[in-house]
Structures are given as structure tokens and as C-alpha cells.
Specification:
381 residues, disordered C terminus
Length: 381
């Protein structure tokens, strides 16, 4: 396995890239599927240069071959979600079905199981949307991916029955499984199942007058190879031009996101590249640039591609203190000043701006696309 870090300033942003695993790239805890193993040197550079502005106590990882670096660091400013649990199973890190990281669920929390015969992305998205309609309940959620045999299904059913006996109520099981024999393992058990496919497929078959394909993995498979390759190329572009790197490539960008440090630029860039296939760069505004009240030269040349992100100073303070508590970078006066200067800069140059304070990365991405989707900008979306 080859492991390296991007050319990031370890005092600012840190990312990691893994090649050699079955198509997994990690960037600050976000897992991105790739077409296949990639060349680390595309991102580390021939000289493996790291910014000299290093944080005391942080050891930068270096490019290696044949072993993993236990000192890899990822950005913890943006909370991990349940997607990571299902991704771990793909790369062989998730515990086998039937085992749990904790002995029981404390406080009688209701349990929700998300079960899929493929990646689980569809089931996770639907379950999340539904469960958020019950904000007073703190659900314990677990995702089971690639449940493609009856044996795997029975093991999950046994867990459900054990939890039902313990808690006197069944877990809510959100199901996206195509194969009827596997689905029946859940449907026939005395547990609460929400079959997300059956809810829609049956009525759709009746209305359309034809049977569905009943094939696994259609929604997240590579049905359009050209479009898939384009999306992966966009992810590479976002990584290569992350955090103000390689500004010479801004001419190839569809969009350049800018804002103060830690306002959500990188997650938004990566999301837009992966889900929309856009070439998205991001550029952090430094103290010097904010004081100048003018766009940096790298941005001024591409003003028509710029999109500004802002955030509430108190939320920015919270994010920065999680990692750099005690530094002037993470005090409220600095946060308030930087936000005010950045917003003045955006107004002066009439840039589109989005406040990310209470938004998830998915909402940020969708809002940006909605704002820029016009006859003059990215009309092909």
C-alpha cells in the first residue's frame, strides 16, 4: 500500500491520499470512490515539498511504499457521518455482522439499521431524511452494506431479534435489497421493516405495465463510463488545486470557492466535484490579502468563476478552537475581523456569497449549484 499526504501546510489544512486499496481516496475523513489505484506522485510532487509553517507536535507523513503511516492526520473540523461506517466495510475494517462496538445501547435509545445489498448510499439518504423528522429522538444507527446472501441477512435479523428482546421494541430496519429471497429473510421476521424498494417498485411496475430489472447496484454502478471518468477527473482536480495549490490550473476550473480558513471550502469543493463532475478549486484568504481589500492576483484573473463562503464568527471560533485552541488564529476577535473583511471584499467585487453556518456539505453544494445554474454560468448542469 502506498500512502502520502497532499502538499498542504500542516498549520492550516491536512489531507491524506491512499492508493492500492480497492478504489478508495481519503481526504480529511471523507471517503471518495475512485476508478482504481492512482499515482501518489501526482499529488505529493517530485520533491515532496511541505510548507515550513508546521505546528509543534505534528509529524508530517511522507510518501512510502509497502506499509502504512500511523501518523496520518485528517481534518476533524467537519463531523464524520454514518457514511464512513459503511465505507469501512468496503475496505475490510468493519466488524463482522453480529458484533457491536458497544455492549448494548445506553439510555434506551431507539435503534435504526440501514441494510443494503450494495453501497447503502440510497438507503442511508432516505433513512436520514425520515429519521430527522423525529428530532427529539436520538437514534443509534448502524449501516450494513453488501448484504448479498441469506446468511448475512439472517445474522442481521438475529441481532434485530436480540435487540427487540432486550429493549422491548424492534429496531427500525430500512431496506434496499433487490433479491427477493434475501428480502424475505427480513420481511418474514417479526421486526419492523421499511422496504424502500418494495414501497415504490410494485406501484411503478403496475403503472408502467412492465416488470423492473431486479438488478443489484443500478443506482450507484458505472452505467455511463464517460460521465464516471469525468467525475473522477474532477475529484483529482479538486485535490490538486485544494487550498490555493497550483493556481496556474485555475483556467481549467468551472468554479473557484474562496473564503477565510475553516469556512467549509474543501468539503464543498470535493462534494461538487464528486456529485456534479465540476472542476472546483478553493482558495483561502490570508490576513495579508484581507488587509489589502483587493482580490489576490490568482483570483482577480478569474473573477467570473469566484464564489464566496462566509460563516458566523462564533461557529468559526468553535471550529478553530477544536484544533488550535489558545492561538490568536482561534480567538473571537480574529474570527470577527476576518469574517468582516472577507464579506467587505465580497461586496466590493460583487461576488455571489453563501453563509455556511447551519448547512451540511450537501446543502452547501446544492445551494451553490442552484445559485450558479444560469444561462451564463455552467448551463450544462
Amino acid at each position: 500500500m502506498q500512502v502520502c499526504l497532499l502538499r498542504h501546510c500542516v498549520a492550516c489544512d491536512f489531507g491524506s491520499f491512499q492508493a492500492g486499496e480497492p478504489g478508495i481516496v481519503t481526504l480529511r475523513g471523507y471517503y471518495v470512490p475512485t476508478l482504481g489505484p492512482l499515482d501518489c506522485h501526482n499529488y505529493v510532487g517530485a520533491n515532496q515539498n511541505f510548507c515550513s509553517n508546521r505546528v509543534s507536535g505534528v509529524k508530517p507523513a511522507r510518501f512510502m511504499s509497502g506499509k502504512e503511516d500511523t501518523n496520518l492526520t485528517t481534518d476533524e473540523d467537519f463531523p464524520q457521518n454514518d457514511r464512513r461506517a459503511s465505507t469501512r466495510q468496503i475496505i475490510g475494517e468493519q466488524p463482522p455482522v453480529g458484533q457491536s462496538g458497544a455492549n448494548g445501547v445506553p439510555g434506551g435509545r431507539p435503534t435504526a439499521f440501514i441494510v443494503s445489498d450494495r453501497t447503502g448510499l440510497t438507503a442511508e439518504a432516505m433513512a436520514h431524511s425520515l429519521l430527522t423528522q423525529f428530532p427529539t429522538l436520538d437514534f443509534h444507527k448502524e449501516t450494513f452494506t453488501f448484504v448479498d446472501t441469506q446468511e448475512k441477512a439472517r445474522a442481521i435479523v438475529e441481532r434485530c431479534l436480540a435487540i427487540q428482546q432486550r429493549d422491548k421494541r424492534s429496531p427500525l430496519v430500512f431496506l434496499t435489497i433487490v433479491e427477493d429471497t434475501i428480502r424475505r429473510e427480513f420481511i418474514s421476521a417479526n421486526i419492523d421493516v421499511f422496504d424502500l424498494f418494495a414501497t415504490f417498485i410494485g406501484p411503478m411496475e403496475e403503472r408502467l405495465g412492465m416488470e423492473s430489472s431486479h438488478k443489484v447496484g443500478r443506482s450507484h454502478g458505472v452505467s455511463d463510463v464517460k460521465a464516471y471518468i469525468s467525475r473522477i477527473a474532477a475529484v483529482h482536480f479538486a485535490l490538486q488545486t485544494d487550498d490555493g495549490l497550483d493556481t496556474d490550473y485555475y483556467g481549467q476550473a468551472d468554479l473557484i470557492i474562496t473564503g477565510v480558513s475553516r469556512c467549509g471550502k474543501t468539503p464543498a469543493s470535493l462534494y461538487l466535484s464528486l456529485h456534479y463532475g465540476l472542476n472546483v478549486s478553493n482558495y483561502p484568504l490570508t490576513d495579508h490579502e484581507l488587509l489589502q481589500s483587493e482580490l489576490p492576483a490568482a483570483l482577480a484573473a478569474h473573477k467570473d468563476k469566484l464564489f464566496g463562503l462566509t460563516i458566523d464568527p462564533n461557529r468559526l471560533l468553535q471550529i478553530r478552537q477544536e484544533r488550535y485552541k489558545g492561538a490568536s488564529y482561534s480567538d473571537i476577535d480574529t474570527c470577527q475581523r476576518e469574517i468582516a473583511q472577507a464579506e467587505n471584499l465580497f461586496r466590493k467585487h460583487k461576488l455571489p456569497v453563501l453563509n455556511t453556518t447551519r448547512m451540511s456539505v450537501e446543502e452547501i453544494g446544492a445551494m451553490i449549484v442552484h445559485r450558479i445554474k444560469s444561462p451564463g454560468r455552467l448551463a450544462t448542469l
